Amino acid sequence: MMGNLLFILTLLILTSCNNSGVQTKTSLADTSKIVSPSLDKKIKDDFETTEINCDTVYLGKGYKLTLRKFDSTNEDETKFNSVFSFQKRTNGKYSEIFSDSIFDIVQDVKFEDFNNDKVRDILIQNFSDVRSNWTYYLYLVDTTHDSLKKIKGFEKIKNPSYVSKYDLIDNYVVSGTNWTSFYKITGDTVFDFEIVIYADPSLENDSKYDRDYKKAIKTILEREKNNR
User: Fold this and answer.
1) Which of 150, 149, 120 is nearest to 137 (CA)?
2) Bigger pLDDT: 11 or 55?
3) Are 168 and 220 contacting, i.e. CB atoms less than 8 angstroms apart?
4) 104 with 82: CB under 8 angstroms?
């Protein structure tokens, strides 16, 4: 009787250990799925790296974008923590055509036309303030010459948006008092028109903001006309 009892206890212990091993293995497998190649985000040699194949954006050009964060502990936006690299595939091999040292938090990338040439340019997230107003680096893409041009000072614009009708950049910044300002790309820099209008976030339809926006656009267009 005692022997049978010992046998049953031993069997239960072994079963418990095996189940524990299965749980641990499953947990590790689930953890590995957090970083998925399908999201183009991978951990390589302790560096966070995002790779984006740009064939769907720039058809037939063989471009690839890579963001490599070399200092994940750095939260000081005045210091670089990442490298942005843009490559082109030729004869089955990628060669770098542009690189830049940047500060980046979440490795968010957008492809939008910011100069009305019908080619999508590259925006890479830079920083986010306490109100989640995001800033970006902007790189104009020239697919004819396989080149990129960084726009200096663009990363100072919060929540940038391109207004193609007027070839201008505006924004909408959430703050104690929400506000909008206006900019234009001139060469490789950003020109600030130093016109700011304010919005009342408590109003669903802020007619004063709408009027001020139209007035600001009219003022900018008149300035540009006079400067020609």
Assistant:
1) 150
2) 55
3) yes
4) yes
Backbone angles phi, psi at 108, to 5 degrees: -85, 135
Averaged pLDDT, 200-212: 92
Angle (CA) 87-90-95 rounded to 5° is 35
* Residues 178, 228: Cα–Cα separation, whole Å: 33
Measuring CA to CA, how many Å separate 1 from each of 4, 6, 132, 217?
A: 5, 9, 70, 94
Give Dmax (Cα) for the chain.
106
CB 181 within 8 A of CB 171: yes
Q: CA nearest 35: which of 47, 24, 43, 46?
A: 43
Radius of gyration of the chain (CA): 26
Q: Tokens for 20, please give them.
A: 């524990």
Q: Which of 15-19, 80-84, 219-223 has the lowest mean pLDDT?
A: 15-19
Query: What is the number of other CB atoms lying within 10 angstroms of the CB of residue 88?
Result: 17
In angstroms, the CA 215 to CA 207 distance is 12
Single pTM value for the model: 0.79
Distance, in Å, from the CA atom of 162 to the CA atom of 67, rounded to the nearest integer, reads: 24
Bridge pairing between strands 160-163 and 147-150: unpaired
| Residue at 187: amino acid letter | G
Does the structure show a pLDDT above 80 at 34? no
Residue 176 DSSP one-character state: S
Please list the alpha-helical segments (H only) found in the chain.
Answer: 2-32, 207-226
